[in-house]
Design goal:
By secondary structure, the chain is of the alpha+beta class. It has two domains: 312 residues, Up-down Bundle (Outer membrane efflux proteins (OEP)), CATH 1.20.1600.10; 86 residues, no CATH class. Helix content is 64%, strand content 11%. Strands 1-2-3-4 form a four-stranded antiparallel beta sheet, with no helix packed on it. Helix 3 runs antiparallel to helix 4 and helix 6 runs antiparallel to helix 7. The chain is elongated, with a radius of gyration of 40 Å.
Length: 466
């Protein structure tokens, strides 16, 4: 009953959770704007891989209840009515499941006449002690559940980090579109000016063609940036389950440099990846403890009450009518049974050796994960430090490029320069503006990399959300 109630409660909670997620998504669609924190929250709520992990955890939780049922006594009931012959022979019959067993004396006849027979009974079996086997089984089921729980947290972390990265990619694409659009606007302005001058025969037609070629190249760059934006929206929509056309980002804080800070030291043990691997090791150890407690005698306290009826006499005579249909002869029995799997020693020893090897393998994998997380953290810190230096340099690049564009345009309009100088200066300015926007975002991306290696992106999300 408690299992059904817990399943019902979970179904109700799951239904409420799904409704809340849908309402939250509808609210975001109505707002037309998604912040980084909202994107991460939607991904954690809706992405299918997380729901898969959660259902697997629910299955392992039920496994704990299943393991605990081993403490309960086993009760078997039987009721039977049959019509059969009464011939019996003396001799041994090896254990099998084909020929029905028969009780009663050998009457020395081979008569096809049949009689009624009936039986009803109850057998109760309970294991009073087990040298810790059932406790080890429950602990193993708990370790399995802990591993599934760690897998859920790892899935949530992976999806959240991927959604945050997708959001930063979308912001970068949007900033690239802005810079490319500014390049198109500048190219359009100079092209119109030159076209008017060519029409007034103040400039050669070659200058107009050169300007139009630069304008076409700028438009191509803009189209490519817009394509990257749509692809980034589709990637973010994959995690949030929103329609890509409905996604609008709130990137005010992300286009500014984050506050000065130092990278927090790495504690690899707190990373969900490392925590999941630790849970895997604990599960393997729990399974080994179960195997170590398997080679012990099993003791069972048994009690039986039963009754039988038959239409046959001990001398072979048959009772007519419905005699035998009612179980008129009663018996009971109490007993204590011990079993010991003597020949299982070799197989259990081999299984323990295999389990020990699996434990050593998982521990080695845990060490490998710790090294990989440390290397990932070191790379993220290096990228972050370089990104900060680049972000401090790109404003100088933009200022110089803007000044060069202004000067080249002025020289050209005064007849002291050529159109190639203007085109080159405009291309440098557009690229400088793109580099400047991406440099600031790369600082944020470096912080995300550090947070991902550390195993906690919540502080990053809070600082990056306006």
């Amino acid at each position: 009953m408690s299992g059904k109630l817990s399943q019902t409660g979970y179904a109700s909670k799951k239904h409420k959770w799904m409704i809340t997620g849908l309402l939250f998504a509808q609210q975001l669609v109505a707002q037309q704007t998604v912040t980084l924190a909202q994107a991460v929250e939607l991904a954690i709520r809706n992405y299918p891989s997380i729901r898969i992990s959660q259902e697997q955890m629910n299955a392992t939780a039920a496994g704990i209840d299943l393991a605990r049922t081993a403490y309960l006594p086993r009760v078997d009931a039987l009721a039977q009515v049959n019509r059969a012959t009464r011939n019996n022979v003396f001799g041994v019959l090896l254990p099998q499941s084909v020929i029905p067993p028969m009780s009663g004396p050998v009457i020395g006849s081979n008569n096809p006449g049949s009689v009624w027979g009936s039986a009803v009974g109850v057998l109760v079996t309970w294991e009073p002690f087990d040298f810790g086997l059932r406790s080890a089984s429950v602990s193993a089921a708990g370790a399995t559940k802990a591993r599934a729980d760690a897998a859920v947290k790892r899935s949530q972390f992976d999806v959240a980090a991927a959604a945050a990265d997708a959001y930063l990619t979308l912001v970068a694409a949007a900033e690239t579109v802005k810079a490319a659009q500014a390049g198109v606007d500048r190219a359009t302005t100079i092209t119109r000016t030159i076209a008017a001058q060519v029409k007034a025969q103040l400039r050669p037609g070659a200058d107009e063609s050169r300007a139009e070629a630069e304008l076409a190249a700028a438009k191509t760059q803009l189209i490519q940036a817009q394509q990257a934006t749509e692809v980034a929206k589709a990637t973010l929509a994959q995690f949030t389950l929103l329609d890509p056309s409905q996604i609008q980002i709130a990137n005010k804080s992300l286009i500014q440099l984050p506050a000065e800070q130092t990278a927090a030291p790495l504690n690899a043990d707190l990373n969900p990846i490392a925590m999941e691997q630790s849970a895997i090791v604990e599960q393997a150890l729990a399974q080994l403890r179960t195997l170590e407690r398997s080679y012990f005698p099993r003791f069972y306290l048994q009690g039986a009450a039963y009754a039988r009826g038959t239409g046959a006499e001990t001398d072979g005579a048959r009772l007519g009518g419905l005699n035998g249909l009612a179980p008129t002869t009663q018996d009971y029995a109490l007993g204590f049974t011990a079993t010991f799997p003597i020949m299982d020693f070799a197989s259990l020893r081999a299984r323990e050796a295999a389990q020990n090897a699996a434990i050593r393998s998982e521990k080695a994998r845990a060490q490998q994960i710790a090294l990989e997380l440390k290397a990932q953290w070191n790379r993220a810190v290096a990228v972050w430090n370089s990104a900060r230096l680049i972000a401090g340099n790109t404003p100088v690049q933009v200022s110089a490029a803007r000044m060069a564009t202004t000067q080249a345009t002025a020289r050209y309009q005064a007849g002291l320069g050529i159109i190639d100088d203007v085109a080159q200066a405009q291309r440098l300015l557009t690229q400088a503006e793109i580099d400047d926007a991406l440099a600031r975002l790369n600082v944020w991306r470096g912080l995300l990399g550090i947070a991902t290696a550390s195993g906690d992106i919540k502080p990053f999300v809070a600082s990056a959300t306006p």
